[in-house]
Design a protein that fits this description.
Oligomer: homodimer
Largest interface: A-B, 73 and 73 residues
CATH architecture of the largest domain in chain A: 3-Layer(aba) Sandwich
Shape of chain A: globular
Largest sheet of chain A: 9 strands, mixed
Number of helices of chain A: 20
CATH superfamily of the largest domain in chain A: Zn peptidases
Strand content of chain A: 15-25%
Structural class of chain A: alpha+beta
Number of strands of chain A: 16
CATH class of the largest domain in chain A: Alpha Beta
CATH topology of the largest domain in chain A: Aminopeptidase
Helix content of chain A: 40-55%
Number of domains of chain A: 3
Distance between the termini of chain A: 44 Å
């Protein structure tokens, strides 16, 4: 008989502890402390309470928890389970069929890992879908994590322990995240399409209007029509796939949502696509239940956001606000194919682009789900975050110019060292951005061109990337940084050049829509965590004509993105679907005629 | 009738001022103040006094002095002299025969220069030899100086004004630096020999045992024998040209001196060679006067110091202390020619190398004259500097390793930014080296590999070059820097690699020999300025077996070296010859039997 939350909430402390037995390896103190938080409103609530106990524990207790796990042991794993997960999991991961070479490799990794970190390697081998990681991926992950910083790896070990506990909880409660699984699997299916040159290497690359790109569009259109029950589906003049699920009344307004299906080169499977597939799962459920809302839902799979094939970022969402730049049509890709030719070849009608512009009066607003693409939720053990604003940003390409001179013969007080001046600025940028709390400032490019070990740098090339949740906050930071740059150059007797290469306005969330996301997250039993979005998103474009607000979903692997290691779990996807559904319910109540 | 110092020293203030009229453009206050320092012991003393008045004047007075000069005016220069130097000078510089294009270029440069600095461009067009600069060099210098920092360019303008005054003083006193001219011209003649690939471009490159290198050796041998009257001259087994001028007695000890005649690629004309040609001029004078000293003089033109063709720096001076490494013989140059083959081809007898090792008992010690290769003397308006020590140095190649992450989505407190950590170290190195006063510390290589404007740097490659006049001082600095590196990495959660690529012991000057240089400089009426040598020199090798001390000669153009702009004047060379001669006299008195 599977466990229920009601049972757990009603049980005596000792009974409850027994019910949760075995979640965390030889560490009943975790469940014991978490149970003090009863009653739990949801499984997500319980998981969060458990993770919080570990988060706030002493380092010694955390280490003891990690060390309570046996080593990854290759052949021996059948008897002496890697993480004490079921033998079933081990079988799924294929770890019981190690070749002698694989076995030896794992032994080497174990030794190196233990020497470096002083605790055993822990990996939730059932993986983000709960069905088991391939053997090679386990070995690759092991090797990769060896390079982590010890502090980070300790946190990563604890996160894997939480994931193991989450999977065990699912087993205990017989909880299957059906829509999370559906959504997760749809990402896998979409990821089968990849551009030539990348597909062969198993890399995911889908750029504007390539064959893989058009296959993705077709696949999304097919799902919208055949699986999800959208009433109208079409591919528009720029390649966006637009599905409409009608409201109760033909005159009803629409809630627009969606994200992009193109990817960067060798990118991740979830960036953009999560924001298409999550609302599609919600519409599917509405359709299955035969349910109509007082508003329609328009899900747009944007054809282009990343600007990879052509320098035309946000082309898909931009077209909906009238921002399509006809000059783009003459841009050529790396093979000399113009955008015009690519669109023609894809059967798109360039003349119709202008008609794509939306009338805001017909919309409630725009909401977007997106994988975080950052480390915050992952580090805080939070599956969801509510976006307060898409940061405004400015980028500069700069050069500091001093005087190259002999490193031995030029006294310290007679130098015009371009690199040290940039170093001074780098530290200032770090402090200045940190002072705001939610601003970020980065010197990503840094190079002394033709530098020599024994030459005082005469030139230093560097970049500045400054972002903040509001334009005013960003501009105040920019002013301070540029003032400091001028002061440093003046004081050190240097000159510099600076060229603005990008400027994007901040897009603060519409308060009403943001509150809907907050209420949705709270309704799932999760703490409401508010955060700015450091990266740009399609919502930034729609922001120009309608209210918008976004929901972030935790990424695994420190939130890495634009990288094949980008990952998120079926459980977190389920929570995203649940939160989206909550927002739909809230809006339905609000817009009841 | 030319003016004499006696006249000037004896004149009334008003008379004296009249005698110095016209040295500095419309600025009698300079001579007036300088005259308070009478009596002058030498022309060098007088020039130094004049320069000191300008150095210590208010900025406004300095600017007024500069602005008292007319613009460089191309065609108009005959009537309206560039620096009010004689029309004769203008003619020598060819500025009276400007093409319309050159005239226009000069007008453009004048406008740009005036806009940037707010004062007219001033150049001592008679140049470092006093005979006039080529027109193209004037225009190139004008263009190059446009890029200078305003503070630096102001100082450069004042230095040119001092050089103009020096030339005018020479005219007034009918003073011709005969041995300075001789030495200056010998550098020009030697610079005619250059390796293929460089010679065609007018660049100076003389690497070990090339044809140009052997021609240089032959030319030096010829001069030693035919012009200077050395008693024995030979080219030894590694290609050093060794000239011996006997002492009074056959049993007399020798004073060894010299420097290297090879160059870096596209190098300067004076680096090394000045230390050969200055003592050659002194021996020439002894020979002409039929004078023998109580000790012999051994001038060695070292064949190899720069390690350009083969990785075997200080090969020439090293051979004299038994440091020739036989493994070098199998090294190949870029064309695959082994050092053994190159030596064989040059007719050198490899078997004799071991016999080159000197017996210190037969020597008084080693002294070396060298162009400073740094900005110190140039900035201080001092022609000569006495070296206290050749700095000991250590070099490291390092990599800081953090975590690359999204510049927008990674909050400031969750970054592991490798570049900011190196920035922190760079500022520490700067402060730490400055604290010692005469230590230097440099991060010459600095690069975020594959950096992106929107990615937090995950890696940063950098170098460390740390030098100090004593090994103990250097080692204390190294310890502090490496400790700080470890602290920064620890605090920021980063790791790093570090690899030592060079370590050279310091070579403090022998106090007695250093005092000889000091007394010589003082005897010339110049202030004694002591300084460490930041660069390595042949004296460093001889240091291992005998006392050594060096004299530095001011370099023009901020002391730039390893560069075609390396330059020094005939006047400064004359002072070097005079100082060397003084040392010979002092040693002669000391070693009188």
């Amino acid at each position: 008989m599977p466990l229920t939350l009601e049972q757990l909430n009603a049980a005596s402390p000792a009974e409850a502890l027994a019910l949760l037995d075995g979640l965390y390896e030889h560490s009943p103190w975790i469940a014991e402390q978490a149970l003090a938080q009863r009653p739990f409103r949801s499984l997500a609530h319980l998981k969060h309470a458990l993770a919080q106990v570990v988060r706030t524990a002493e380092l010694d207790a955390q280490l003891a928890l990690i060390r309570a796990h046996p080593e990854l042991a290759g052949k021996a794993m059948v008897a002496n389970s890697l993480t004490a997960e079921s033998t079933n999991e081990q079988n799924k991961a294929g770890l019981t069929q190690c070749t002698p070479e694989e076995f030896e490799r794992i032994q080497q990794l174990n030794a190196a890992y233990n020497e470096r970190f002083g605790f055993p390697f822990i990996l939730a081998v059932r993986g983000p879908r709960g069905t088991g990681l391939p053997k090679q991926e386990i070995i690759d992950t092991f090797a990769r994590r060896l390079d982590n910083h010890p502090e980070f790896e300790l946190a990563e070990a604890l996160r894997n322990i939480h994931r193991i506990a989450e999977i065990r909880l699912g087993d205990k409660f017989d909880y299957v995240p059906e829509l999370g699984n559906l959504t997760w699997d749809a990402h896998e299916e979409l990821a089968r399409y990849s551009d030539p040159g990348f597909a062969e290497k198993g890399q995911l690359t889908v750029t504007y209007l390539t064959e893989a790109h058009r296959e993705c569009a077709e696949r999304i259109r097919f799902w919208m029509e055949a699986s999800c029950g959208f009433d109208e589906v079409n591919i528009d003049a720029v390649g966006n796939v637009v599905g409409r699920y009608h409201g109760k009344e033909p005159t009803a307004k629409y809630l627009m949502t969606g994200s992009h299906y193109d990817t960067v080169r060798n990118g991740g499977k979830y960036d953009g696509r999560l924001g298409i597939l999550v609302p599609m799962a919600c519409v599917r459920e509405l359709h299955r239940a035969g349910k109509r809302l007082p508003f329609g839902i328009e899900v747009v799979a944007f054809a282009e956001e990343e600007g990879q094939r052509y320098k035309a970022t946000f082309l898909g969402s931009g077209a909906l606000i009238g921002h399509f730049n006809p000059a783009w049509l003459d841009q050529k890709d790396a093979d000399g194919i113009t955008m015009r030719a690519a669109m023609h070849n894809a059967g798109l009608c360039i003349d119709d682009i202008a008609t794509l512009q939306r009338d805001p009066a017909q919309y409630l607003g725009f909401i977007e789900v997106h994988i975080e693409q950052g480390p915050v939720l992952n580090e805080l053990d939070l599956p969801l975050g509510v976006v307060t604003s898409i940061n405004g940003g400015v980028r500069y390409l700069c050069e500091m110019i001093g005087t190259a001179s002999h490193a031995g013969t030029t006294p310290m007080d007679r130098r015009r060292d371009a690199a040290v001046a940039v170093a001074e600025l780098a530290l200032y940028v770090e402090q200045r951005a940190a002072k705001d709390g939610d601003s970020v400032g980065t010197i990503g490019l840094l190079n002394v061109p033709s530098g020599s070990i024994n030459v005082v740098p005469g030139r230093c090339l560097f970049s500045l990337d400054l972002r903040a949740p509001t334009d005013a906050q960003r501009d105040a930071m920019v002013t301070d940084v540029l003032d400091e740059l001028a002061r440093i150059a003046q004081r050190r007797g240097l000159r510099y050049t600076i060229e603005e290469s990008m400027r994007a306005a901040a897009a603060p969330s519409a308060p009403a829509l943001q509150r809907h996301w907050e209420r949705a997250v709270d309704a799932l039993g999760l703490p409401v965590f508010r955060m700015p979005s450091g990266a740009g998103h399609d919502a930034m474009k729609l922001h120009a004509i309608m209210p918008q607000a976004m929901l972030f979903v935790r990424g695994q692997n420190s939130g890495i993105s634009h990288n094949p290691l980008e990952s998120t779990t079926h459980n977190d996807m389920q929570l995203a679907v649940d939160a989206f559904t909550q927002v739909l319910h809230q809006l339905a109540q609000e817009t009841q005629p």
